Structures are given as structure tokens and as C-alpha cells.
UniProtKB/TrEMBL annotation:
The chain crosses the membrane at residues 39-58, 70-90, 96-117, 124-142, 154-174, 181-204, 216-237, 249-268, 274-290. It comes from Aureimonas phyllosphaerae. InterPro entries: Diverse_Substrate_Transporter, EamA_dom, EmrE-like. It is found in: Cell membrane. Keywords: Cell membrane, Membrane, Transmembrane, Transmembrane helix. Residues 10-141, 156-289 form the EamA domain. Its main location: membrane. This is Drug/metabolite transporter (DMT)-like permease. It is a multi-pass membrane protein.
Length: 302
């Protein structure tokens, strides 16, 4: 049973489920906690919660961390702060539909990056699987009417979403080559980078007069964000990338909008449609096909 739970597909699907829940939490946070306050406090909270458990591993991993501290902190700044901050700003200029469509290109960013930097190729079945997951995402984004995709306008916000997608793709590529340390040491150092990167963003929000104290709902969302998206999902994603590599792991990201849509039905009482089920089938089917076409590669440095 434990071996099944530790299977990379299970870990990565749980990651995507939590990220989908985080999207719903983001909707519920509007007006209850300011975005940059949430960004900083989630990583500060993660550091406080993690430290008692991570401390012995940080001590043992100190030589490696000392040599590569800039790598860890920079990776956290890239994947934890820059991605989220750019995404939050972009959502003020574009629609959720456009955001989902553009973010569905993330596995392609990883495919290309892994080939250019590490000469890791993808198989035909992996490309076919990616294409199917993309159709599933488009089905969710268009609410079952794919023809509406052609009528969408792309703007500055979409360029920002593309930028944030590229950032997380690069984060995933670099994550596959991170130095070998305990996962608690990894997540603590990455969270430190996330917190440091969020400080100037909160300063900007304060100067702009956009910061406000969280209310009870805001604090509940913050607590959820600290435990699940900030700690648990990141740990699962790191482990998933370690186990099967960046190319295979990143395809699972395309289940996020599907899980997000289903959770929106359950939590936000949005209507359930047949296209939700069809999209989930396409995305999971695409992942299954991509997994059948996996290539054998040398394990990355952990």
C-alpha cells in the first residue's frame, strides 16, 4: 500500500490536486488578504513550520548547502516568488481561460529546455500524450466549446502568463539537477528563497497602498496555503521530478486546471458539465500514453 502511495504518478497527481485547490483558495482570498501579503506570509509560515523538522537535516547537509546555497535560494526565488507574483499581476489583465491555455504549454517549455541544455529527447508517444492533455485543458478553458478559442484576444496579461509559465518551466528543469540533500533541507532552502524574494514585492504593495490586514477567512486561506501548496505539494513535486525526471513529471501539471474546475464545482457551487469529465479523461489518457512512451535516461543529480 505504501509503495503504491509513493508511486511518482500518485505523488504528482496529488501535487496537481493541491495546486488546483490552491486556485480555488486564490479565488476565495480576494478581498480577505492582499496578494503580496499572502505571497510573503505563506513562505514565512512555511519556514517557521518546517524549521523544527528540517534543522537536523540542515545540519547534516550543511557542507552541500554551503557550496550551493545560491542555487537553492535562487531556485526558490524563481519558482516560488517570481512565478506566483507575475501570475497574480497578469490575472489583472487577462482571463482565466487565457491563463489556462497558455499554462498548458509548460510541458513543451520543459521538453525544449531539457533537450537544449541536457540533450534529453522525447518519444513520439510522449508528444502524442502531451497533445491529448493540451486538448483536455482547452476543453476546460473553453467550457466545452473549442471554437471559442479562436475568438480569444491576447494581450499584455497573456504575455505575463507566458513569462510565468516559462519561469516555472525553467524552475522544473533546474530542479531536476539540484544538489542531493534531504527533501526537508531542499524545501526549507527553497522556501527561504521564496520569502526573501517576496519582501520587495510586499514593500511595493505597501507603498502602493494596496495592502490590508487579513480577516478570519484570509487567515484560514493563509493557513491552508502554508501547509498544502507551500509545503506538501512542493515536497511531492520535488520528489516526483527526482523519481521520473522533469519531462515526464511536468506533463502532470496539465491536470491542474481540470482538478481546479472540479473543485470549483464542489466548493464554489459552479455547475458540473460533461466536458469536465471528458477533459479529465483526455488529460489522464494523455499522461498514460506519455508514460508508455517514456525514455530511459540517466538519473539526474539529486
Amino acid at each position: 500500500m505504501l509503495k503504491r502511495l509513493a508511486h511518482p504518478a500518485v505523488l504528482l497527481l496529488l501535487t496537481a490536486f493541491i495546486w488546483g485547490a490552491n486556485a480555488v483558495a486564490g479565488k476565495l482570498s480576494v478581498g480577505h488578504i492582499s496578494p503580496m501579503s499572502l505571497t510573503l506570509l505563506r513562505w514565512v509560515g512555511a519556514l517557521i513550520l518546517l524549521f523544527p523538522f528540517a534543522r537536523p537535516h540542515l545540519v547534516r547537509d550543511r557542507p552541500t548547502i554551503r557550496r550551493h546555497w545560491l542555487y537553492f535560494v535562487g531556485l526558490g526565488l524563481l519558482g516560488f516568488t517570481s512565478f506566483n507574483a507575475l501570475f497574480y499581476v497578469a490575472m489583472g489583465y487577462t482571463s482565466a481561460i487565457n491563463a489556462m491555455i497558455i499554462q498548458a504549454a509548460m510541458p513543451l517549455v520543459v521538453f525544449v529546455g531539457m533537450f537544449l541544455f541536457f540533450h534529453i529527447r522525447v518519444s513520439v508517444l510522449q508528444v502524442v500524450g502531451f497533445a491529448l492533455t493540451l486538448v483536455g485543458v482547452l476543453l476546460v478553458a473553453s467550457h466545452g466549446h473549442l471554437e471559442t478559442i479562436l475568438a480569444l484576444d491576447f494581450n499584455m496579461g497573456d504575455a505575463m502568463i507566458l513569462g510565468s509559465t516559462t519561469i516555472f518551466g525553467v524552475y522544473t528543469i533546474l530542479l531536476s539537477r539540484k544538489p542531493r540533500v534531504h527533501w526537508l533541507s531542499s524545501i526549507f532552502m527553497l522556501s527561504l528563497g521564496g520569502a526573501l524574494g517576496a519582501v520587495p514585492l510586499l514593500a511595493w504593495e505597501l507603498l502602493a497602498g494596496l495592502t490590508f490586514a487579513p480577516d478570519a477567512q484570509g487567515l484560514l486561506i493563509l493557513a491552508f496555503t502554508i501547509v498544502f501548496p507551500s509545503i506538501l505539494s512542493q515536497a511531492l513535486y520535488i520528489k516526483g521530478v527526482e523519481m521520473i525526471g522533469a519531462n515526464r513529471a511536468n506533463i502532470f501539471v496539465n491536470t491542474v486546471p481540470v482538478f481546479g474546475a472540479i473543485l470549483a464545482v464542489l466548493i464554489l457551487a459552479e455547475p458540473f458539465h460533461a466536458y469536465h469529465l471528458a477533459a479529465l479523461s483526455l488529460v489522464l489518457g494523455g499522461i498514460a500514453i506519455a508514460e508508455r512512451g517514456k525514455r530511459t535516461v540517466q538519473p539526474a543529480a539529486q
